[in-house]
Amino acid sequence: MAKKLKYKRVVLKISGEALMGNLGFGIDPKVNDGIAAEIKEIHKKGIQVAIVIGGGNIFRGLTAAAKGMDRSTADYMGMLATMLNGLALQDALERLCVDTRVLTAIEMRELAELYIRRRAVRHLVKGRVVIFVCGTGNPYFTTDTAAALRASEIGADLILKATKVEGVYSKDPVKYKDAKKFDKIDYMTALRKRLKVMDSTAISLCMDNNIPMIVFNLKKKGNIKKAVEGKKIGTLIS
Q: What are the pLDDT digits (tens) for 62-82?
C-alpha cells in the first residue's frame, strides 16, 4: 500500500501552539490525542514519520529575549519546553499502540535518547515514529530550522509544515481580507518576498537540499493524510 503513496519518509513540523488548542497555555489533551490519531493514520500506511515539535505553548525564547532575558538562556528554556510536548505526543501515540521514540538534541538520559542520525534512521526503518525535540540543540536556531536540518540528515522526501491557516498567503490573511493564497511557490520567491512560512535559514536549507515543503491547516481533520497522498492541499514550496 505504501508503494501507491507519493512520499516514503516525511518530517512533520508541529508548532507548540497547535497542542494548546483553544487554551491560552499548555497542552490540550483532546488536541494532542487528535494529532496522534492523524499521525497513526499515515503511519499505518507504511510511511516513515518523523516529527519536529515546537515549544511556544509553554515558553517562547524570542519573546522572553525581547523583554530583556539573555537570548541564549531564553532559547535553551524554549528547547526544554519542546521536550514536554514531545513526551506528551509520545504518550498519546503509544496509547494508540504506535511504537514511538523521542530523540533529543540535549542529553537527558532519563527522558529520551540522544539524537544520533544513524539511530534515528534505524528507528524509522524499523517502523517507529520518531519525535525530535530540543531543536538543533543550539540557541539562535528555530525549530523550523531544526525541521529542515533533520529532514536533510535523514533523507526525508517532504516536510509537512502544520499551521493554523490554509497555506501561504501574500500577507496575513487574519488581518487582510484581500490576502492571496498561493497554491505553489518556489523557495526563492518565499525568501525574496519574506513570506512568513519558515525563517530564511530553514527555507535555504530546504532549497539547498531540494526538499519540498507543504504548508497546510492542521485544524482540518484528515489534512495530514491528504498531504502525504499527494492531493492538492495548502501550499507547495519547491
A: 788 888 899 999 999 999 999
Q: What is the 3-state secondary structure (H, E, C) of the chain?
A: CHHHCCCCEEEEEECHHHHHCCCCCCCCHHHHHHHHHHHHHHHCCCCEEEEEECCCCCCCHHHHHHCCCCHHHHHHHHHHHHHHHHHHHHHHHHHCCCCEEEEECCCCCCCCEECCHHHHHHHHHCCCEEEEECCCCCCCCCHHHHHHHHHHHHCCCEEEEEECCCCEECCCCCCCCCCCEECEECHHHHHHCCCECECHHHHHHHHHCCCCEEEEECCCCCHHHHHHCCCCCCEEEC
Report d(CA 21, CA 23) in Å as an integer.
6
β-strand pairing of 100-104 with 235-237: unpaired
User: What is the domain-level CATH number for residue 15?
Assistant: 3.40.1160.10
pTM over 0.90: yes
Q: What is the total count of domains within the chain?
A: 1
**pLDDT tens sequence across 191-211:** 988 887 788 999 999 999 999
Of the candidates 164, 184, 198, the residue with the CA atom closest to the CA atom of residue 233:
184
Report whether pLDDT(1) > 50.
no
Domain assignment of residue 120, given as a range: 2-237
